[in-house]
Input
Amino acid sequence: MQIAQHTVVSIEYTLTNDEGEVLDTSKDTEPLAYIHGLGQIVAGLEAALLGRSVGDAFQIRIAADQAYGERDPELVHTAERAQFGGDDPEIGMQVQAEGPDGAETLTIVAIEGDVVTLDANHPLAGIPLTFDVTVVAVRAATKQELTHGHAHGAGGHDH
Ligand code: ZN
Output
């Protein structure tokens, strides 16, 4: 069976940046399961998987605009250290905040004196990403999975 709209696809993947550092991998857990065609994985990877079959293995480098998007400088904010209450802010720490589109995750990227700089860009925004992918399963999605909008079973939702 080939990967097409509304198939449930399981992949093993390893994600690296241009320096060859591993940013994420399914090898430590179980294969990732997703419903094809719903934008559940980054656009460049979804496009590259269309028409593949079980056992296909490939590597693809995806530009930032087809992955997690370009970095938006407007999403970088500053705050006063005192706004963190008792928590001592540290570079790399992630905090939740209410943004215009609901809850967003900000990462502390700089601290100078009492000024803390926070970045709401996705941590992988602006970075070309290389995926090493192996297709491990392809099947038709069930009606229930399409209603729920996610894959069930191994690598998907359990409920
Ligand atoms: Zn469900």
